[in-house]
Amino acid sequence: GIPFNPAEAGCNFEEDLCNFYQDHKDGPGWSRVKVKRNVYRAGDHTTGFGYYVLANTKFTSQPGYIGRLYGPTLPGNLQFCLRFYYALYGFFKMSGTLAVYIFEENHVVQEKIWSVLDSPKGVWTQAEISFKKPMPCKVVFVSWCKSFWDCGLVALDDISLSLGSCQAADLMLPNPGECTFEKDECVFTQQKRGRGSWHRRRGPTPTSYTGPKGDHTTGVGYYMYIEASDMVYGQRAYLVSRSLRGTSGKQCLTFFYHMYGAGTGLLSVYLKREGDEEEIPLWRRTGEQSISWLRGLIEYESDRNYQIIFEAIRGVSMRSDTAIDDILFQAGPCLEVEEIQFSSGYPDSLNEIEY
């Protein structure tokens, strides 16, 4: 037969539903949505600007199953690892509001293999499930509303399937050019000339109405951020990579950034080539951007060894926490273009303030 490609059983929902479909007898079910981006509404998991699928259980006339989202047929007798991101809003009780079933092709057996137990509200959280079935089967995502008074929104994004168990995939060494901050700061160190500090943290930041609720990687892991209440207006914090090997041709740096809070200052990325005094500015955002993680993309060139520097400048108030996560260095040009969101912004003079 045709060899099975596990990539065809995943979807980031940017273009369409990929190979997923739904049974409309369940009611309205799942819709592919793109949130009109603003500071108060989180975007998708992939970039912060894209699409995801949403089940709105408020639209149902009676409680119960409201949406079954079916994946493509998977061959039997193979070990799979299913990973996806979910976010829940508006439910009083979280448990059971999203479940994953295995539906065997003989239409007799549906087995629940996972369901939400508890979850932070409105945070993209990663789930992973290992499974193996003797017969061909489908993965089914089911949103569920227990009572009319406790209905909310179930969001789903970035579904991926790989061969082998999830534990085996975790034992593989991480991409050498990637830093998720789960174990440490990877290739980055603090530079104390601005006297502000980057902190590694998980969960929400201490000051309300600023900073992320969780990291970008899994929702429950670590990220780096500046704590504005420990700094003064205009103070800088530098996170500097170790010396990276220069190559001819274009390179691509991607990362996720979080700039939420009424007083948010600046986040800049610089390139410093070996032997040069000057740092070359590559990227910059000013002011509050979004309540969700957004993706930054930078294409650059350096034939000499170089360092990448992340500089955060504290804004006008305590509500100016700025965070970064999931930094990835790749050879070759960036394959996509970054969507720019225009910020509320501060004047450029903020960049001139030295502490």
From TrEMBL:
This is MAMC2 protein. InterPro entries: ConA-like_dom_sf (IPR013320), MAM_dom (IPR000998), MAM_domain-containing (IPR051560). One of its GO terms (cellular component) is membrane. CDD domains: MAM. Residues 9-168, 177-336 form the MAM domain. Pfam families: MAM. It comes from the Eukaryota. It comes from Pedionomus torquatus (Plains-wanderer).
